[in-house]
Amino acid sequence: PGNVFVMEDGTIGLIDFGQVKQISGRERLTLAEVMVALAERKSDDDPDDLATISRLALELGVKLKPGSPKEGPAATAMWLFDGKTKTLPGGFEISELSPKSPVSVLQSFPQGLVLVGRSTVLIKGIA
């Protein structure tokens, strides 16, 4: 997309003044904790890592439909924010169009993070 730039130093610049959202300090901190937990996890199926990632996703405000697999919050965070994930926990699939996508169990997603999620999905798609 025209709003993603590779800067001279190799970093990515994302510019889109039509879609701007300021998130709270608490949301930024929790989102950063999610990213760190994703980056530092031992594997895609380590129970302790999945519990931490799930807890943080729920703290962000991710809500699942009743009866959803316990891995749902972690699978959602991995699907949205981690481009290296090959297999999602709980039998979920990476394709958002799959009936086994984490999207299928979402009851609600925090309004303030919709643009963050959308941006990460776009960037992963062009990476």
UniProtKB/TrEMBL annotation:
It comes from the Eukaryota. Residues 1-42 form the ABC1 atypical kinase-like domain. This is ABC1 atypical kinase-like domain-containing protein. It comes from Phaeocystis antarctica.
